[in-house]
Amino acid sequence: MKRKKIRLLPLACGLTLCLAGLLGGCKAQEEITNVPTPKPEKQTVVINHELEAPEHYIEVIGNGEIIASPDFATIQLGVTATGETAEAASAACQEQTGKAAEAASSLEIRRQDISQRGVEIAPKQKEGTTTVTHYEATDVVTVVVRRVAQSETILTTLMDAGEFEFLGVTYSITESSEAYRMALAAATQDALAKATMLAEATEVQLGQVIGIVETAYDDSALIGENFESSAIAVSAQITVRYRIA
């Protein structure tokens, strides 16, 4: 009996078995191409995100007010004079306003700080008729006082100089920035006092400031304003947030 010889053939495709009957033969090495592995339609992404612990805080509003000193005072005096004619009434009125101007000048008030509105003349008629009995002239004298502390003394001197009607005295400020800065500091102290009180009442530890907002302020808001009192209030407001533990 003849023995059949079995010969092992080398694999033509490396480690890949060649199934000739099913695959129709093996591909040569140069015919093999690298094809990327298809990705799934939906990808699952895992993100490890640690949430920060919420920040605890106390938020308060601080208010501050400073009484500022006015830069000048304005005194207004009314003058009234009568005459049989318009010219006579006007002359009498101007005589009175001249006395006010002289008295102001004697108090070392600058001439540019003394002004007059201008004489106004009106005919006065007999009641129930159109007959003019006399004429009345009126004027207003305005005196600007730079030495505000002496405004009352100056007013008394002016009133004694002639027959005047006191129309009023007002006070004004031309520079409020320094007063506002002081009010801002006072508002900061007020906010701290409020926050400290709240922290003690709730038994928490008051920490550092983590936010502060200043309420909008117009430093020219007081310029040109006339105040009836010589105590001009300048205020500031802030919102402060303190961290607590």
Features of the shown structure:
32% strand; 245 residues; alpha+beta; five-stranded antiparallel sheet
| Radius of gyration over all CA atoms, rounded | 48 Å
Instruction: Categorize the overall geometry.
Output: elongated
Unreliable runs, pLDDT <50, ≥5 residues? 8-23
Succession of helices and strands: HEEHEEEHEHEE
**SS class:** alpha+beta
Please provide the count of β strands: 8
The portion of residues assigned to helices is: 10-25%
Helix count from the secondary structure assignment: 4
**N-to-C terminal Cα separation, in Å?**
101 Å
Question: What's the topology here?
Answer:
Elements: H1 20-23, E1 57-68, E2 72-83, H2 86-106, E3 114-116, E4 120-125, E5 132-145, H3 151-160, E6 164-172, H4 177-202, E7 206-214, E8 232-244
Antiparallel strand pairs: 1-8, 2-5, 2-6, 3-5, 4-5, 7-8
Helix pairs in contact: 2-3
What does this structure look like?
There is one protein chain. This protein has 245 residues and is an alpha+beta fold. The protein contains 4 helices and 8 strands, in the order αββαβββαβαββ. The chain has helices spanning 20-23, 86-106, 151-160, 177-202, and strands spanning 57-68, 72-83, 114-116, 120-125, 132-145, 164-172, 206-214, 232-244. The strands form 2 sheets. Strands 2, 3, 4, 5 and 6 form a 5-stranded antiparallel beta sheet that branches. It has a 3-stranded antiparallel beta sheet with strand order 1-8-7. A hairpin with a 6-residue loop joins strand 4 and strand 5 (132-145). Helix 2 (86-106) runs antiparallel to helix 3 (151-160). The longest helix has 26 residues, at 177-202. Mean pLDDT is 84; it is low at 8-23.
